[in-house]
Amino acid sequence: MTMQEHTSKQFDAELETIRSRVLQMGGLVEEQIVKAMHGLSDGDLALIDQVIDDDHRVNSLEVELDEACTQIIAKRQPTAGDLRMVMTVIKTITDLERIGDEAEKIARMAKLIHTSEAGFVPRIELKHVAGIAIEMLRKSLDSFARLDLSVSAQVVRQDDLVDDEFRSIMRQLITFMMEDPRTISGCLEILFVAKAIERIGDHAKNMSEYVVYMVKGRDVRHVSAEEIEREVAR
Question: Rounded to whole angstroms, how far apart are CA atoms 14 and 89?
Answer without folding.
Answer: 13
